[in-house]
Design brief:
single chain, 229 residues, alpha/beta, Rossmann fold, Arc Repressor Mutant, subunit A, 2 domains, five-stranded parallel β-sheet, 8 helices, 39% helix, globular
Length: 229
Amino acid sequence: MSNKAIILIIDDEVQIRRLLEITLESNDYEVRMAATAKEGLMQTAIHPPDMILLDLGLPDQHGHEVLQKLRGWYTNPIIILSVQSGEEDIIKALDNGANDYLVKPFRTGELLARIRSSLRTKTIQENNPLLENGSLQIDLAARVVKKNNEVIKLTATEYNLLALLAKNEGKVLTHHYLLKEVWGPGYLNQSQYLRVFIAQVRKKIETDPNRPEFIITESGIGYRYVSKE
């Protein structure tokens, strides 16, 4: 029985599938492929993979619809690979449950890093109370944050924001998602709230808030909590 992570590629471009197959297999992943939405959904239902790489421009169904169908039951990471680079498409995909979004053509090194990050995030569960990232330690059970073993004083809102980002390490969380989860549905248009609190958290956890290492801005889209490993 193989212990390799299984990655399903759903993409109608033969050259892209071949490139990804060679890249992923050479990095010790098991690869499965589908050229249509129907085939991809069927493969996922029969043998759920550890991750899906999903193209938005499929011949039989739009990738956004496929993503919504998958997120009705499939909980493992999904990374979107698409030529569509507009903020609207990226935000829609992330809000619909994609873990990440890469615009074609992409660098294989960046893709592999995003895959590793998403698979690592998969192992971070609610019952794992201690999230360690370099010098930063977040105890979810005690709601205590430490840097270099010294307790950092955070307000309840600052803590909730940081914990939400950390539990989704590597995943881009959109402005709307963060506002809804931390402040509630009535704050979806209050982006200024988010900017202010992100700045406050950065001042407390980053060595240089102007060059953040933990909380990265995805311009026009949201924020990503990254691993320092």
